[in-house]
Amino acid sequence: MSMDFHFLLNNSVSISAALLFIALVVLLLIHKLQEKNGITKKKKYHPIGGTILNQLINFNRLHHYMTDLAAKYRTYRLISPFRNEIYTSDPANVEYILKTNFKNYGKGWHNYSILKDLLGDGIFTVDGDKWLEQRKVSSFEFSTRVLRDFSSVIFGKNVIKLAKILSGAAGSGQILDIQDLFMKSTLDSIFRVAFGVELDSMCGSNEEGKRFSNAFDDASAITLRRYVDVSWKIKKALNIGSEAKLKKYIRVIDDLVYKLIQTKTEQMHNPQDGFSALKKDDILSRFLQVTQTDPKYLRDIILNFIIAGKDTTAATLSWFIYALCKHPHIQEKISKEIKEVTDQEQLTAISEFTDRLHEAALEKMHYLHAALTETLRLYPAVPVVSLDGEEG
């Protein structure tokens, strides 16, 4: 195979553009022939907003591109050589899909084929009984007081660590990538809640944790790009380009996850090794206490928990800080409310401040809650939900 052919296969934009151009020309010719022969049906379709090539070109500003289309059309189609997609931001349509006729809309094979390499048979990829089982289990686990209290302690500790990093940067005039810091902080927290192990990607003291963090972010990015890269299956079959990298990143992720599952399983079987009840509050331990589950199942379900808790929280916090910087008067009001509720004038350390951020105190911070809610409205953590449904 020539180097030129390798180059073309590695260049997603080039091969996608070529395939799309050929396919769209063929589709147009077929449609014209049908019109000429009078065999086209009179059927009303939503307007065409663009093609998958437009998504690929605008990939680095995809949310802005999709928002512009939603503002223009509310409901529209994006066409591609292999499947056409309908996008809607109409509240009536969203309610119909996610509530009224929810059973008709699952993830489908298209989403599963894209996500399964990274997320396996987790809740974000499966339908039917598998989805129902995981929804039931996760709802029960996250509603338990033990897990909520355990999570609060973990997030509190990482907040102190995060605050110290920010305080040190502010004192020295250092420039920080706040989103990257939030991503690492939330990953450390949700990883500790999930596996009961300290990852410490925020400070980078754990080399294995650093490799996992980088691999997880890179694997997530490549998996997302599959939605607009029509050549990803070819690259996967030939194990080249981004798909070869994805395979390598998933191997790094799996090496650590399966090692932790094996270690935790052995500890559960040998409680005399110092594995006390206090160390059984993480999600993995709780699953192992209920049933001796297949390692692959545990890997999939917990990785889905991590991806759900990491990016959504970090992205919302990043947008929240961005919005506060644009509206200093809102920032002042929030700061005033926090000081009043926590009686901050008498505090001398960050740890004292976090100790006062209990549920009762947070429930009194109405303005802060409103500002976070408005941030989610303007910059939703999950801006697009991809589903397959029966036509009808």
Automatic annotation (TrEMBL):
<protein>
    <submittedName>
        <fullName>Uncharacterized protein</fullName>
    </submittedName>
</protein>
